[in-house]
Design brief:
- InterPro entries: AB_hydrolase_1, AB_hydrolase_fold, AB_hydrolase_sf, Epox_hydrolase-like.
- One of its GO terms (molecular function) is hydrolase activity.
- Keywords: Hydrolase.
- With 255 residues, the protein is of the alpha/beta class.
- It has a single domain, classed as Alpha/Beta hydrolase fold, catalytic domain (Rossmann fold).
- Helix content is 42%, strand content 15%.
- A seven-stranded mixed sheet has the order 1-3-2-4-5-6-7, sandwiched between helices.
- The protein starts with a strand and ends with a helix.
Amino acid sequence: MTLAHDVDGDGPAVLLLHSSVCDRRMWDPQWPALRDAGYQVIRCDFRGFGQTPVPDRPWSEAQDVRDLLDELRIDRVALVAASFGGRVGLEVAARWPDRVSALTLLCAGMPGHLPGPELRAFGQREDELLEAGDVAGAVDLNLQTWLGPEADGATRDRVREMQRHAFDVQLAATEDVPRLDLGEPDLGEITAPCLAVSGRHDLPDFRQIAARLPDLLPDARHLELPWAGHLPSLERPAEVTALILDFLRETLPGR
């Protein structure tokens, strides 16, 4: 199954990977700017998000991303990835380092990371709300947890719509399909330059991951945004778009 996706522009390829709070629409603010800067821009929905249905057989998000690149005949791509998408991006870059030219990670997760107490408490409360049938309450919990103080009302409404849609799709699934067990990826295999961005208002897990990546990867640096929560590309889209473009121009100049 092919992931639902969009492609536009001409030049070096940039693939946008979304947070699990959102879907590919989270990149609406960045899409035209990246295209106009001389890049071929791709964005996709993971399985169970946006327009991609839930899986009907064992699957791996990283393998899905590689399959999409193969289908589009893209040999090498820069990844711009948020949160869970960042975890997937790190796995793709570790398993197939020759396919990834650069990594921009926004408040990324990381393969093998063990959740801290705040993240575990969030997951437990979300499960309780969903098991009680309070989907609206679970959506509100996600907005309260993941959006920082800079997010305006329109942004909150946009994230609410994407998260509610994901819950509706996933809760309607009649079968629990396991992920493929590909083994733990070795982040030491990553060769792409990496910019790891964190938000000061984010949960400690994601701040700690971003701060650790320069010690784990051969060419990585960490930038903390003092104003940001967990979704900075939506909280201050113009500022984060400029940040992404600056790093891409440094590592992968557009046409």
